[in-house]
Specification:
With 480 residues, the protein is of the alpha+beta class. The chain folds into 5 domains: 37 residues, no CATH class; 96 residues, LysM domain (Membrane-bound Lytic Murein Transglycosylase D, Chain A), CATH 3.10.350; 78 residues, Membrane-bound Lytic Murein Transglycosylase D, Chain A; 80 residues; 98 residues, Hepatocyte Growth Factor, CATH 3.50.4. The strands form 6 sheets. Strands 8-10-9-12-7-11 form a 6-stranded antiparallel sheet, covered by helices on one side. It has a 5-stranded antiparallel sheet with strand order 13-19-16-17-15. It has a two-stranded antiparallel ribbon with strand order 1-2. Helix 2 crosses helix 3 and helix 4 crosses helix 5. It is globular. The N terminus is likely disordered. Keywords: Chitin-binding, Virulence.
C-alpha cells in the first residue's frame, strides 16, 4: 500500500513573518490578561474557601432590611413567599442576590422581604394589558407598580407570578387571600384594653405594647414586625410625620389589630417631590450634603414609600434618594443646597457613566418632603435699613399678609438671600412680603446691633425700622 504524500502550500517567508508578527501583536495581550485574570481569581477563591488552620472569621454583617426578614426553608419559592407575606415575587428575587433560582432556594438564607402591597396572582395567558383591565387601572400605572413587568420578548412576567396592585406599604386590603392564614401583624381575637391604653387607639386589638423611655418608632415597629402605615392606622394619635415624638412613655399602643378593626383601605402618608439638589454651584468634587441625617445604603430596589417610612419612623419629614440605592433623612434641606437642573438626578460627572473623577457622593439627591412647606436651613446675616427701597436686588417676590419666615425660606431656597420686608402703604397701613435674590442692594446699610426697644412682635430690627436678611449660602456668613 502506497502512502500518499500530503502536499501543503507553504507561503513565502516574508508573508509567514508578517502573519506571525500580526498574531503575536493580537493574541499576546489577550493571553497575558487571561492568565492574570485566572491567577487573581483563583488566588482569591482559594484563600477565601480555604482559610488557615485554626483561623476564625467574624460572620458577615447582616443585610440592611427595611421590613421583615424571612429565613428560607425547604420548598420555599419566590411565589410562595409572595403569597404568604403579600409582596411582589419579582422584588423578592431582585432584592436578594443570594437567591439564584426562585424555584430552588437554598435553605437557612436570610431573605429581605419587600414592603407589603395588595397583590394579584397572574394566571395563564395573562399580559400586562389584560391584568390592567382586570384591575381597572391603566397599563402605565400597572407597570409603574411593577417595573420589572415590561412586556419583554419572552414574557410580561419574567420574574414571578405575584404582582402589586397598589403601592408598596400603601393601601391595606383586608380581603387578600394568603396561602398561610396566620399573619403576625393581625390578631384573631380581641384582648382587654389595658388601663394605660392610649384613648385614641383602636380597641379591636389583640396585642398592646407599653412605650418605655428611650423607645422610638423604628424600634417599636421592628420589635413587632409592623409597618408604619398600619401602626398609625391602629393608633390615630401617632403622627406619621412625627412618629417618635408622638409616643408617650407609659402609654400602651395597639401593635396587633384584628383584621376587622380597620377599614378596607387607608392611604399612606403623602409626600411632595422637591427636585434634585447638590452642594454648591460648580464644585463637582464637593460631597452632596443637601441632606445630612441618618441614611441606609445599598438597598435595592429602594422605593420612595419605603424611604419615607424609614425616615418618618425617626420623626424626620424630609427624605431623599441618592444613586438609586441610598435613603437619606433630615429635618430640613441643608445650607448650600442648589437645584441640579442640568443632569437631573443622575450623576453630575460623566453623564452617569462612572467618570473616574467622581465618586458616588457627588450624585445629586432627589429630595422629598412629608410636610409643606419644605423646611430649609438658613442664617440671619444682620439687620439692614429698609424704609423705601428693596433690600435685595434681582428680586423675585410674592406678597402676603400673614406669611411666615419658614414659608419665605422655602420659597427662596434657590436664591442666596431672602427677607420678610415691610411694605408701607400709609403711616397706619403696612404689609409684609417675601423677597429673594442673589445680590444685596448696595445702597442699604447694616444697622448696629445695640439693644433697643422691640416692636409689638418683639422684633428689635423691625422696631428700628429695619429688615432682617437671611442667607442659605455659607460663604456669606460672617465669622464671629
Amino acid at each position: 500500500m502506497r502512502l500518499a504524500r500530503i502536499r501543503r502550500y507553504l507561503p513565502p517567508p516574508s508573508q509567514t513573518l508578517l502573519t506571525c508578527l500580526f498574531a503575536f501583536i493580537i493574541y499576546t495581550p489577550v493571553l497575558v490578561w487571561l492568565g492574570y485574570y485566572l491567577n487573581i481569581t483563583s488566588y482569591f477563591q482559594f484563600h477565601r474557601i480555604l482559610p488557615k488552620k485554626g483561623e476564625t472569621r467574624p460572620p458577615p454583617p447582616p443585610v440592611a432590611c427595611l421590613s421583615r426578614v424571612h429565613i428560607s426553608k425547604a420548598n420555599d419559592t419566590c411565589d410562595s413567599l409572595a403569597l404568604k407575606y403579600s409582596v411582589p415575587s419579582a422584588e423578592i428575587f431582585i432584592n436578594n442576590p443570594d437567591i439564584l433560582d426562585c424555584d430552588d432556594m437554598v435553605e437557612d438564607v436570610a431573605i429581605c422581604l419587600p414592603f407589603k402591597c395588595n397583590t394579584y396572582q397572574v394566571k395563564e395567558n395573562d399580559t400586562c394589558t389584560s391584568v390592567s383591565k382586570t384591575l381597572g387601572i391603566t397599563r402605565k400605572d400597572f407597570i409603574s407598580l411593577n417595573p420589572w413587568s415590561d412586556g419583554g420578548a419572552y414574557s410580561d412576567f419574567p420574574l414571578g407570578n405575584i404582582v402589586c396592585t397598589t403601592p408598596s406599604d400603601g393601601h391595606y386590603n383586608r380581603t387578600i387571600n394568603r396561602s398561610d392564614p396566620a399573619d403576625s401583624n393581625y390578631a384573631d381575637e380581641v384582648v382587654p384594653q389595658p388601663e394605660n391604653a392610649d384613648p385614641a387607639a383602636n380597641p379591636q386589638c389583640g396585642r398592646w405594647y407599653t412605650v418605655e423611655e428611650g423607645d422610638n418608632c423604628l424600634s417599636v415597629l421592628d420589635q413587632h414586625d409592623m409597618s408604619l402605615s398600619l401602626f398609625t392606622a391602629a393608633n390615630p394619635s401617632i403622627s406619621p410625620i412625627n412618629c417618635t415624638t408622638s409616643l408617650i412613655p407609659g402609654k400602651a399602643y395597639c401593635v396587633s389589630p384584628t383584621k376587622t378593626a380597620l377599614p378596607e383601605s387607608y392611604a399612606p402618608p403623602t409626600y411632595s417631590r422637591q427636585g434634585c439638589y447638590f452642594s454648591g454651584d460648580e464644585d463637582f468634587y464637593r460631597p452632596t450634603l443637601a441632606l445630612a441625617g441618618p441614611r441606609l445604603s445599598h438597598i435595592k430596589p429602594l422605593s420612595i414609600s419605603s424611604c419615607q417610612a424609614y425616615c418618618l419612623s425617626l420623626s424626620l419629614p424630609v427624605f431623599g434618594l441618592q444613586n438609586r440605592d441610598t435613603c437619606i433623612c433630615d429635618d430640613r434641606l441643608r445650607m448650600d443646597s442648589r437645584p441640579d437642573e442640568i443632569w437631573g438626578c443622575s450623576s453630575r460627572c460623566g453623564l452617569g457613566r462612572g467618570d473616574s473623577s467622581c465618586g458616588p457622593e457627588q450624585h445629586p439627591i432627589e429630595v422629598f418632603s412629608s410636610q409643606e412647606p419644605l423646611a430649609v436651613e438658613y442664617v440671619n446675616i444682620g439687620c439692614f435699613e429698609s424704609k423705601k427701597e428693596y433690600v435685595i436686588l434681582g428680586k423675585n417676590y410674592i406678597e402676603w399678609r400673614y406669611g411666615t419666615l419658614e414659608e419665605c425660606a422655602s420659597f427662596c431656597r434657590e436664591a442666596d438671600y431672602f427677607a420678610l420686608q415691610t411694605k408701607h402703604y400709609s403711616p397706619v397701613e403696612q404689609d409684609s412680603f417675601c423677597i429673594c435674590g442673589n445680590q444685596l442692594n448696595p445702597s442699604i446699610k447694616k444697622l448696629k446691633g445695640e439693644k433697643e426697644s422691640a416692636d409689638e412682635k418683639g422684633d428689635i430690627c423691625r422696631g428700628k425700622g429695619g429688615t432682617n436678611i437671611y442667607t442659605t449660602n455659607s460663604k456669606y456668613i460672617e465669622s464671629p
